[in-house]
Design goal:
The structure holds two protein chains of two kinds. Chain A is α/β, with parallel strands linked by helices. Chain A is built from four helices and five strands. By secondary structure, chain B is an alpha+beta fold. Chain B starts with 7 loop residues before the first strand and ends with a strand. The chains are: A alpha/beta, B alpha+beta.
């Protein structure tokens, strides 16, 4: 079973696109579990280690296309606070704390408008559809589908 | 550096393992010894300004967004201010549920502070690899403790989630009470956590005590200076986080002022801006700007309290009080111990409330209309006493907002602490990373929430720079 984690601030426009995407996927697939959050946090690890694969979905400020990549465990960083938890760090802590290598993927959706408000821009919604297609292909074939 | 008559400066930026972002400047004299220290907070947010014109009833929803660590305290202080404007009384069960969320926040915040942010120094050492002197290093070397710390924080967050549906930026605290009653299912789920939460907290306490026993001189001398202490207490002087009156004690533990109504806070607390930081300098008015600086938060709350409300916390409280050499515990390192004592007391109090069958009542909210212009609400946030003060027009729109935040009240003490620790450990001629880590640790004792205290926007990295008196950089240490 796969865990889909959509995270972001739904009150900041396009930042909520990750949550939008996982909610759409929840309607399409029965063999997934969806977790919604404002940000990644350590407490999620306990849930994550119960799944074969974990897909994180989030808005990105990078330009370009939707990307889908497997997470490699990162080198340690001294910038640890509760506000900025990178997927790589979560992976690393999963190994240290639960002795389990979590197969973690990140789907990043380029977004543009982060103004106060709940509406996702048309351009980002178009990319969200692409993200849904990419993740769906992965879930259906069990393959990595890169945009 | 070659000019013997000019002092030099060391700047630490970012200060790591704290919430929010700050910078420290250390000024050295000709002999390379620390002469002065400044704590800069460079964030600015403007909640007090942009809330003007909003209906006051929105504030318990808006102000929790000041911070993701202590949103419940903001919601509670805000709701209390609104209730003063409405002249309404919260039903008994509504108060119980608010207390539950409040205690959950204490547990969550204190767990984060000790197990994630500060334990690396204690368990791994001051000079451990900075890249791993954090939760990663703890997870590698002490995975059981790291896991327990994460789960303790999770329990604290679950108290909010099971009561309101959200872990952070709580929406369920409203003017007049709370939005949702507690179900029996959620009550039992929370009770099931208690044994583990108590055990984990006790582990933290034992860890601190072990460190203290083997590093007594260091712990006792770490940023140890007298100051006033402020906290809220119950009618008999008992430790009280949700709805107490204010008590000030001095550095010798003598009560200076007692059972002050928080609604009159402007009679005894004033603020002065300083040029090097967006964080203002509050002080106790009767003592004036210089002598009137005070500390808040766990250390101060235990200094002002006469007793705790629960047995395990009371036992540790007596040990804490025994540490007082001159009547008060003034060493900043004991903030960690005080934080753990509050945590165990909070877990015990959660159980007491959940065991009360009235906690399941559905009478949780009262309603009224605006009945007066002004409202002031106060509660203890994890970091210290928090005030929300609103003034409204006849339509209930805010004309003025004043937020006196816990961390802001510790600003002068944080500056002083940096100076004391830097004098003790920093040698300008031989600057060691572990020494600078200790300076940062002086700030971590306070567990400041800087985004909160400046009501600030966004993240600005914190940097340590060493400059000479002409402003030229001699050295710099940048983390992250």
């Amino acid at each position: 079973m796969v865990l889909l984690v959509g995270y972001g601030n739904v009150l900041r426009g396009d930042d909520g696109v990750g949550i939008y995407v996982v909610r759409q996927l929840e309607k399409l697939f029965s063999n997934i579990k969806v977790l919604i959050s404002q940000q990644l946090n350590l407490e999620m690890l306990e849930e994550m280690v119960r799944f074969e694969e974990v897909i994180l979905v989030d808005a990105s400020q990078e330009k370009g296309n939707v990307t889908f990549r497997k997470i490699e465990v990162c080198a340690p960083s001294s910038m640890i606070a509760s506000h900025h938890l990178r997927p790589e760090l979560l992976c690393k802590l999963g190994m240290s704390l639960y002795k389990k290598e979590i197969a973690m993927y990140v789907c990043s959706i380029p977004a543009e408008k982060f103004d106060v408000g709940e509406e996702i821009s048309k351009e980002t919604l178009t990319r969200a559809d692409k993200a849904i297609a990419t993740i769906s292909a992965f879930l259906l074939k069990g393959e990595k589908a890169y945009a | 550096m070659d000019n013997p008559s000019t002092p030099k400066r060391i700047v630490i930026s970012p200060v790591t393992r704290i919430e929010g972002h700050a910078k420290i400047t250390l000024r050295l004299n000709d002999n390379g010894k620390v002469e002065d220290a400044l704590f800069h907070v460079n964030e600015f947010r403007g909640f007090e300004k942009f809330c003007e014109g909003r209906p006051f009833t929105e504030m318990p929803s808006i102000t929790p967004r000041i911070c993701g660590i202590c949103p419940v305290s903001h919601a509670i202080s805000s709701a209390k201010a609104c209730e003063m404007i409405l002249k309404v009384e919260v039903p008994y069960t509504g108060t119980l549920l608010r207390r539950l969320m409040h205690l959950g926040q204490m547990i969550s915040s204190h767990a984060l502070s000790f197990f994630h942010l500060s334990s690396p120094d204690i368990l791994l050492g001051w000079d451990y690899d900075p890249a791993k002197r954090n939760i990663i290093g703890i997870a590698e070397k002490f995975p059981d403790l790291a896991l327990r710390g994460i789960r303790l924080r999770k329990f604290g967050q679950e108290l909010s989630e099971r009561l309101t549906g959200k872990k952070i930026h709580t929406m369920g605290i409203v003017a007049g009470g709370v939005s949702f009653p507690l179900t029996s299912e959620n009550r039992q789920a929370l009770l099931d956590w208690i044994p583990e939460a108590l055990q984990t907290t006790q582990m933290g306490i034992d860890l601190f005590k072990k460190y203290y026993e083997s590093h007594k001189q260091e712990v006792e001398s770490f940023a140890n200076f007298e100051s006033l202490h402020l906290g809220t207490v119950g009618p008999n002087g008992e430790h009280e986080l949700y709805d107490g009156k204010l008590r000030f004690v001095d550095g010798k533990g003598q009560i200076v002022a007692d059972q002050l109504n928080p609604r009159n806070y402007l009679d005894f607390i004033a603020e002065r801006p300083v040029e090097w930081s967006y964080l203002k300098y509050p002080y106790y008015k009767p003592y004036g700007f210089g002598k009137g600086f005070y500390r808040v938060g766990p250390l101060s709350r235990l200094n002002v309290a006469t007793m705790m409300k629960t047995p395990l916390a009371q036992k540790e409280f007596l040990n804490f009080k025994a540490l007082a050499k001159n009547g008060a515990v003034n060493g900043n390192f004991f903030y960690h111990y005080a934080r753990l004592i509050e945590t165990i007391g909070s877990v015990e109090e959660v159980k007491m409330i959940l065991d009360d069958d009235r906690v399941l009542s559905t009478e949780v909210h009262s309603t009224a209309s605006r009945n007066q212009a002004e409202g002031i609400g106060c509660s203890e946030a994890p970091r210290g006493t928090l005030f929300h003060h609103y003034t409204t027009d006849s339509n209930g729109l805010l004309t003025k907002v004043n937020l006196l935040i816990a961390t802001g009240q510790m600003n002068p003490a944080m500056n002083r602490s940096i100076l004391e620790v830097a004098k003790q450990y920093v040698d300008g001629k031989n600057i060691k990373e572990e020494a600078l880590n200790r300076v940062e640790a002086a700030i971590r004792c306070f567990d400041p929430c800087l985004s909160c205290s400046t009501h600030a926007i966004g993240a600005m990295p914190l940097l340590i720079e060493i400059e000479d008196s002409l402003g030229q950089m001699i050295n710099s240490i940048k983390r992250g």
